[in-house]
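Lecture 7 notes: from sequence to structure.
We start with the chain below.
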Amino acid sequence: SGSGSMVSDVIINPEKYLFISSFLLALLAAYVIYRISKLEYKRSGSLTGALIIPFSLLLYMVIIDLPSRYIPDQLLMIILLFYAELIIRYLYDGYKASKFAIYSGVLMAAGVMTKINFAPFFILPLFLLPGWKLKRTYGIAFGSLVMVLFLLIHHKFNEFVNFALKVSTHDGLYGGGQDQFLNPEAFWNNLIQIMKDNPALMVILVVTVISLFLLWTRKDLRKAHRGELSFLSGFVLVAVISIFIVAKHYKNYYIIPALSISGLAWYMIWMISRRSRMRKLVPLLFLVVMIASLVRSGQILVPGYTTKANQKIQELATGSFIQMSMSPK
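Predicted structure tokens for the same chain:
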């Protein structure tokens, strides 16, 4: 602002710094998406494979709308996009398992310490790491970073515990509502709303469950796709747990971690289908599903933005009227 300290300027003009921070996070997310697409195109030469994960993010209005907000969930999405790249390198490029275990621990710890709704993702690497030695390495890396990050916020720990207890023992948002763990009627309504707000996630979950059934019932496929089987099993479990947790206290952006990693599930289903008898039809089928999902997301997103625009116009008109009324004649 030209004078004063940075702290005072942030206090005086918070919107400017929130916008800058959100913009930088959006750039970081774009960079990670570019890395994933470049990695896959360089590895397989397939444009379809390179675009699956980037396009999957466009299937959810809450992710499209994310850069306009400044919330921790932006960072959670970036963490999981980094993890998606790490998984691809591990399963398809021969990335060293011990390094994968360590970096998995670092990323999962960063996510869990950022926001509690990331907690279910702690179990995802356990599906991908064979043997107790690698799982122990992951646990040590996870626990070490959690301890380091905890030191930064230890003075706020009691407040967090009180907040967590209220959230877990009350049926309203942020620990409000009635003194009960769950409101069955609200929980069921929230589940339905999650499905309505994120139809693409429901499609991916259904297709993933069908793929898992085929992998488990066919020994040849199970042997050829052990990595995909492990990830898809973990993804379904983590996504279902996340959905049920969010349904207790529903805000659509709480489900962003599950949405962020769903593109990787879509990618692995595509990898499996490339070796099937229908491999020539796979790109067309994926294109049809993507277009249908994008159209559905647009049907949800456009009315919301139209409403926001109308509200903004009304606010500006009201502000101008008040200013004119109060100005001296």
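Points to note: DSSP finds 15 helices and no strands in the chain. Residues 211 and 217 are 10 Å apart (CA to CA).
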